[in-house]
Specification:
With 252 residues, the protein is α/β, with parallel strands linked by helices. The protein has two domains: 3-221, P-loop containing nucleotide triphosphate hydrolases (Rossmann fold, 3-Layer(aba) Sandwich); 225-252, no CATH class. The chain contains ten helices and eleven strands. The chain has helices at residues 3-13, 16-24, 32-43, 58-67, 121-125, 128-133, 168-171, 185-194, 209-219, 226-240; strands at 47-51, 69-70, 73-77, 91-95, 98-102, 110-114, 135-138, 141-144, 150-155, 174-179, 207-208. The chain has a five-stranded parallel beta sheet with strand order 3-6-9-1-10, with helices on one face. The protein is globular and about 55 Å long. The two termini are 31 Å apart.
Length: 252
Amino acid sequence: MDINELNERIKSESYFIDEMLQEMHKVVVGQGDMLERLLIGLFANGHILLEGVPGLAKTLAIKTLASVMDAKFQRIQFTPDLLPADLTEPDIQSKRRNFTIRKGPVFLNFILADEINRAPAKVQSALLEAMQERQVTIGDQTFKLEEPFLVLATQNPIEQEGTYPLPEAQVDRFMLKIKITYPTREEELVIMRQNLFQDSIELKKIVSKAQVLKGRQLLKEVYLDEKIERYILDLVFATRNPDSLSWINLKT
């Protein structure tokens, strides 16, 4: 397919991206880079770790993203007493000798792991299989997770008392780590005024799960020049063996 034709097709089929951003900005003031990166993670099928001090709309941004989608969402507050079974294993409820299985929260489309470093390493590791393989093994049974499946985690980089640093294997499962900064003075003024009618803002469902999955397939058709491919490889190998590729100017 001609590149110009492909670009026009991508532009016409990704119209809802701008609509999603506009809808999210009704609730989240500023933080445009964060919202764009959330959408990058969504359509690139990669989990996201948001890092920043409390009060910077990390949780609000994730909840807002879920609100503009027709998808199942669950917020999990990570605490020191959380157990791995609280994330993955289903609840078995009995009523008059009839057993009903209610699957755990990890079986939903969007998981907000709020303050993920508040829970012990074994709880954090309970998400490893789900994040990497998109499946959960319980006993001798393996359950496939419904797509799209996305883990969006938050953590506070300053307060370390009572926290558990994420193990390297866990960090490796996140495609993006987004550091959130304070809003500008003008944005703070808008936030103050918006708090008066925050509860009255209703968000529309802009995109369906089927559109997200179709968008992920469309990404694979984006033209990538060989020069870009080689530059990506240069960056990767520079992190593995910096001395052999010292000529690369990583700042540009």
